[in-house]
Write a structure and sequence with these properties.
By secondary structure, this protein is mainly α. The protein folds into 2 domains: 102 residues, Multidrug-efflux Transporter Regulator, Chain: A, Domain 2 (Orthogonal Bundle), CATH 1.10.1660.10; 119 residues, Orthogonal Bundle (Multidrug-efflux Transporter Regulator, Chain: A, Domain 2), CATH 1.10.1660. The chain has 10 helices and 4 strands; from the N terminus they run H-H-E-E-H-H-H-H-H-E-E-H-H-H. It has a two-stranded antiparallel sheet with strand order 1-2. It is elongated, with a radius of gyration of 25 Å.
Length: 232
């Protein structure tokens, strides 16, 4: 089929079809006697698989994945698909851990705090499962405000511990420093953590949509690998 015919079948323009070929998303086209591109069923299968994967994991990751799916061995291609599923599961686990960390921060923030319970940077880093350098970076960015002792040692009281837990929760959810700074300022001014919880819950919803889209892509991926044969 021609470039235009393939584009019509899979919902892309002729230029998009050429771009997908150039990027290695679909196999190279054969050339007719007149020098024009000629596409076959395997090109349509690859284009449909890419479209489905782009809906599930995003266009850029899908573009990076497709050359392996059409060029590597079937074993290697299947392994990469497994990694996509694992990646989504890991993302979901991190968001759930972030929500749990936020719940802990909220519960403990309401408790009476004894100054003797203040934490060192090492203790807090260990409790959050991060490096002390991360806490120092958050402090420089104005996200966390530890107390300073006479020897310039950091001490984390109730407020600083709560700040650090919220930051850790949002970082685990994939948010950058500027967005976290804005959210924390809202929390400090209004004592309202609802936005943080909504953000993380929205991420869980988005991950569910991606998982469902990946299930929808499974048929196209199966067709792609079956088209290549089991003998790779």
């Amino acid at each position: 089929m021609t470039t235009a015919a393939l584009g019509r079948r899979v919902g892309y323009s002729t230029q998009q079809v050429r771009d997908l070929e150039w990027l290695g998303v679909i196999p190279p086209a054969e050339r007719g006697a007149n020098g024009y591109r000629r596409y076959a069923g395997r090109h349509e299968t690859a284009a449909r698989a890419y479209r489905a994967m782009a809906a599930a994991i995003g266009p850029v990751p899908a573009r990076r994945l497709m050359p392996t799916l059409i060029g590597a061995s079937v074993d290697a291609a299947a392994e990469r698909i497994d990694e996509v599923h694992v990646g989504l599961a890991d993302d979901r686990s991190r968001v759930r851990e972030a929500l749990h960390g936020l719940d802990v921060a909220l519960v403990e923030a309401d408790d009476d705090f004894d100054d003797a319970d203040a934490m060192t940077i090492g203790e807090l880093a260990q409790a959050l499962g991060i490096r002390p350098s991360a806490l120092r970076h958050w402090e420089r960015e104005g996200l966390v405000h530890p107390l300073r002792g006479t020897a310039s040692t950091r001490s984390y009281g109730a407020a600083a511990i709560t700040e650090a837990r919220i930051v850790a929760a949002l970082r685990a959810g994939g948010y950058g420093i500027p967005a976290i700074s804005r959210i924390l300022e809202h929390v400090r001014q209004h004592a309202d953590t609802g936005e943080v919880q909504r953000i993380l819950q929205d991420r869980l919803v988005a991950l569910t949509r991606r998982s469902v889209a990946l299930l929808a892509a499974a048929g196209h991926l199966h067709a792609l690998l079956a088209d290549r044969g089991e003998g790779d």
